[in-house]
Specification:
The protein has 518 residues and is α+β, with helices and mostly antiparallel strands. It has two domains: 338 residues, no CATH class; 127 residues, no CATH class. 47% of the residues lie in helices and 9% in strands. It contains 19 helices and 13 strands. The protein has a five-stranded mixed beta sheet. The chain has a two-stranded antiparallel ribbon with strand order 1-10. The radius of gyration is 24 Å and the shape is globular.
């Protein structure tokens, strides 16, 4: 193992990275609601938790708590801020801290492995990639904590102590309650590093014992899921390395591949990494991030342990299924670790310092991408304009059904309007279907209480709506995003009067007659 940098070197570089990382969160604050697909659903679950704990929630009988979930920590962080700043600002604060923590935790990891921490500036453009735009809140919160766990692992490999072993055991359990995928990913990396750094078989066993602390927790969690009614998806094992299409879920065709929406695993690396649609800009920018260190004279390390994180990351991106059990977009979200773990494999040029232009060049790449993401956010804000006006006209505490006929926005790679109406549930204490509460989240539907408009089905095919089949009379509001008025088509067979209550831009709010009860 290489020796860590001196305190002066590490503190100076970490301060530069910290300042740049905080500035890099500006795009999050440029829009009313962040352009993150699943974030409205997560916010709705957190608001549901608050409503259930307060009491008096009209739909409380349909839900139950699920405290033993591996997606807990991110929810609790946002929940803790609710009384102070409200749900939208709380989400923005936690997401900002999670994104800013990625370069900072990378800098700490690079310091431990003997690499200049200022190289972490190159991870800033990847802050707004696939996981951010899809709104994977708990994954984003867990990602920098995974890098901190890797930092603990390298310290323990370099200097094994009982205290370090206990920290690893506690850390792997904490990662599980942050996000199960992060726990498995960094658990595998830590196991490889500890095995490779052990001199004897007995030493290897001793070093691996702390990682086994999470096994009983996983067993108990898995046993509790047996027989539970959750969303089930068909596994997608197609490696799809170079194709120009990427699977997405459609209720009628199951998993299908619409041409041009996405990219293959290899050809889509830079678009997913940077959060930009495929094209020459994403390719050039992505190549610059990976090649700039070599232009500055960096060498690839010859220490095998430092290669393990990057090798595991590459294997994940190439071979992990896109869908498994009840989770989708698995390998895609791990693009966020490609740059941090690649940087671990670098070493300084032999016998000389970095060229003077190195850090200004890194800063220019970071600043340039912050500007691009800021422009994209403002373009998205223009597409989202008007939704707040709909919210203002909706009474609190009601039930609504979401129709996302238009899911995409300019400047994003994810369908950011897919769950957008769930902000009503988050802000006004109501209930919006389809709901993240179907997935075994912190608060979820009781068995048999799930709505007919199921998650991972209805939102992809809202045109399948039928009044009787989906229990239209139970909803007071119907929120539609579409380029034209679809009311006559959607409610042609309604047994209640449904009127257009408000329309602005591509947002349509329909309201059921209050005298008609299902």
């Amino acid at each position: 193992m290489s020796a860590p940098l001196s305190p002066r070197q590490s503190s100076g570089g970490a301060f530069v990275v910290l300042a740049a990382s905080l500035l890099a969160t500006i795009p999050i604050w440029l829009s009313t609601f962040p352009p993150m697909t699943d974030l409205p659903q997560h916010a709705a679950v957190i608001a549901l938790l608050q409503a259930m704990r307060r009491g008096g929630f009209p739909y409380a009988a349909s839900f139950e708590f699920n405290w033993f979930t591996p997606y807990l920590f991110g929810y609790l962080l946002v929940y803790g801020l609710l009384p102070l700043v409200g749900i939208v600002t709380a989400c923005k604060i936690i997401v900002s801290l999670a994104l800013a923590a990625m370069p900072v935790s990378t800098a700490l990891l690079l310091t431990e492995t003997g690499t200049d921490p200022r190289w972490a500036l190159l991870t800033i453009p990847a802050m707004y990639g696939f996981a951010y735009q899809w709104g994977f809140l708990n994954f984003l919160v867990a990602a920098p904590l995974g890098l901190l766990f890797l930092w603990l692992t390298f310290r323990q490999a370099r200097n094994p102590t009982l205290r370090g072993a206990l920290a690893l055991g506690a850390g792997i359990i904490a990662l599980f309650f942050c996000h199960a995928l992060i726990c498995v990913f960094f658990g595998a990396i830590a196991g490889g590093i500890l095995l490779l750094s052990a001199g004897t078989p007995s030493a290897a066993i001793r070093r691996l014992i702390p990682l086994t602390a999470v096994v009983p927790v996983i067993i108990v969690w898995a046993a509790g899921r047996v027989g539970r009614s959750v969303v089930r998806l068909p596994s997608v094992w197609d490696l799809n390395w170079f194709s120009t299409a990427e699977p997405y879920y459609d209720a009628l065709a199951q998993w299908t591949t619409p041409g041009g929406w996405g990219w293959g695993r290899v050809t889509g690396l830079f678009p997913r990494l940077l959060g930009m649609r495929a094209g020459w800009l994403a390719a050039l920018f992505g190549l610059a991030l990976f090649l700039l260190p070599f232009a500055a004279g960096a060498r690839l390390t010859r220490r095998p342990a430092k290669w393990i994180p990057f090798i595991v990351c590459v294997a994940t991106l190439l071979f992990l299924p896109g869908v498994l059990f009840d989770a989708a977009f698995l390998f895609q979200r791990f693009c966020v670790f490609a740059l941090p773990l690649f940087l671990v494999t670098l070493e300084a040029p032999a016998g000389r310092t970095w060229p003077r232009w190195t850090w200004p060049a890194c800063g220019a790449l970071a600043a340039g991408w912050i500007g691009i993401m800021s422009l994209n956010t403002m373009r998205y804000e223009s597409d989202a304009a008007g939704f707040a006006q709909l919210l203002a006209r909706m009474a609190p505490g009601e039930r609504a059904l979401s129709f996302a006929f238009e899911r995409d926005a300019d400047g994003t790679i994810a369908p950011v309007f897919l769950h957008f109406p769930s902000w009503y549930a988050a802000l006004k204490g109501g209930l919006v279907d389809p709901s993240q509460a179907e997935t075994g989240a912190l608060v979820h539907y009781r068995p048999g209480q799930q709505p007919a408009a199921r998650l991972l089905a209805f939102e992809w095919n809202p045109g399948a709506f039928e009044w009787a089949r989906y229990g239209g009379a139970q909803y007071r509001y119907f929120v539609v995003r579409a380029p034209q008025d679809l009311g006559a088509r959607l409610f042609a067979r309604a047994t209640c009067t449904v009127r257009l209550a408000y329309h602005v831009n591509h947002w349509w709010l329909y309201e059921r007659s209050p005298g008609c009860v299902g």
